[in-house]
């Protein structure tokens, strides 16, 4: 039982990270209907920016909460620039062309970003000293002590806060309304005087910022990053988005949590080697019964 | 050009510069390096300023250019001309290309390096043609094609090393195994639409790779399988010193021993395999099942209402595509004599899909051009090892941006009603 709770805590933490990345996939898919393959690499760049700023601020000796806040903002800002540029360079010229063109462009962009970081930062893994240590211990009397580290609390709380802000942004503000309108019908939205290009750019900026937060969490949680982390995290987050129903924002978060939980439970109870297989197998099984994911809208085709 | 335009483009260029600074500043400018314990930062501001300067200059020149209304039309003009030439003289071109491919090993400038590159290009052409059946004809986006390539390679390697059967028996077996896997995957997932199918096939590719890494007893894990038998020339091995009482290729034909013999043989082997794939595709397009594929690609609902069973039709495309992937895989295994899961990563799938889409979906000639172009680019950057993948990805983006339908865009149905050619 204690072991189960420990895995649950670990799974929720991992799920938060996946969920934040998945939102970027699902938003972009919802608004322009493409799989943004470069999103995983945007997450990786976010992790690198966070790592670099942690090192810089680590030298100054500022208080920890201030460092965390500053790094968060810096990572969001710089990574958003990447998301914006990628959209401008690789996807915007392809708007309105056939379905596979942006996908190939995104694959190319993903290859470019990965190798660019490899060249610029070196191929070796980058370790970082843990910044937030310690935690709460439960069930001290039993055989297995459940530890909830402060870091895990930080990750989950930050995710919840960001999700709150994000939900408010999408449901209550003009920007969110414009975004949802673009999702439904881009031509009509443009006719009603909304700058569609700008809305799409902002979508990419929001998605990249959330991915960069996930990147920062990844650095803190695992303490090791390299230029290749974006690929696996990216396809898992995309799996999460599809599992929850692509295009649906609560679905992305739900899918992220599910993938995180499946992975940790599989790793904890069955076999560590095959935990990635578990995530993909669950996806295949789920899609057989729910062809549009858990919360996705059924796709109605008109003749 | 007016003064207003110049000011505008200067502003624009400066904005580009700011963005470029934000992009390159942290990632290029602050290089992390581990020294003893922990990481340290080595600044590289000079490089950042060069990159930012290049961006500003580039943006300014593009602005000047577009103000003069001379858009980047050269590339698209060139490719559309290419496309019309290839369409008009398709037969002559094909024959010329095949003739060139046949005499290629004996041309004076052909050396070992050229042959290796040519074999690699032909392997990708074959994979591209195989995937073209799935993506180009049937319109199913398969991002895990490398799984079938891997299944082919591993089944060839395992059969050949365990039973010692010859290449010519193992090759069809590997193809059948790969086709079987295609059906196995296709059966549950082919009801899914578009992008859902893409992610499931991607996941399948990863599953196969992870199983190959972890199933130590059979696949030998990350260490891979070594000592895969080389193919023989109809029973004559390519050995310098054949066993007692056995003839080898050079003794049988009274030739001086040379390692090139085997390379040339492998080259012809993959050439023939690729041409078989092409011939098969061209023929099957004209059969009912091939027409059903193209019809499904264009409109699934119309097909259903006309009594085409979409699942079975897609399944055949998937299985046949997988089979050719398996053939290519067994060729890969026999050429390398060593395979490991590292050769079957997602990037391979991405390259094959890129070849199909960049060539122009459904165009057989396009696959050839795209393979030569993409592999050629990575070979040109061979000395700049680190930059070759950047160049590769950049080329993918650029082709798509300037030519979204691929180099040769002819997505026309194979047949027309009453000779009604538009």
Can you lay out the helices and strands and say which pair or pack?
The complex is a heterodimer of chains A (303) and B (422).
Chain A lengths: L1 H31 L6 H22 L3 H28 L8 H22 L4 E2 L7 E4 L7 E4 H23 L1 H11 L1 H6 L4 H27 L1 E2 L3 H16 L4 H22 L4 H15 L14
Antiparallel strand pairs in A: 1-4, 2-3
Chain B lengths: L2 H27 E5 L4 E5 L1 H23 L5 H16 L1 H14 L8 H26 L7 H19 L3 H23 L4 H21 L1 H4 L5 E2 L22 H4 L7 H25 L3 H11 L1 H6 L4 H27 L1 E2 L6 H14 L4 H17 L7 H15 L20
Antiparallel strand pairs in B: 1-2, 3-4
Total domain count of chain B: 2
Q: CATH architecture of the largest domain in chain B, please?
A: Orthogonal Bundle
Q: Major beta sheet of chain B, specifics?
A: 2 strands, antiparallel
Q: Average pLDDT value of chain A? A: 85
Q: How many strands appear in the DSSP assignment of chain B?
A: 4
Helix content of chain A: over 70%
Strand order of the largest sheet of chain B: 1-2
Shape of chain A: globular
Describe this structure in words.
- The complex is a heterodimer of chains A (303) and B (422).
- Chain A is mostly helical and 303 residues long.
- Chain A has one domain (13-228).
- Chain A contains eleven helices and four strands.
- The longest helix of chain A is centred in the N-terminal third of the chain and has 31 residues, at 2-32.
- Chain A is globular and about 65 Å long.
- The N and C termini of chain A lie far apart (54 Å).
- The model of chain A has no long low-confidence stretch (mean pLDDT 85).
- Chain B has 422 residues and is mainly alpha-helical.
- Chain B folds into two domains: 3-71, no CATH class; 75-419, ABC transporter involved in vitamin B12 uptake, BtuC (Orthogonal Bundle).
- In chain B, strands 1-2 form a two-stranded antiparallel ribbon.
- The interface between A and B is large, with 71 and 63 residues.
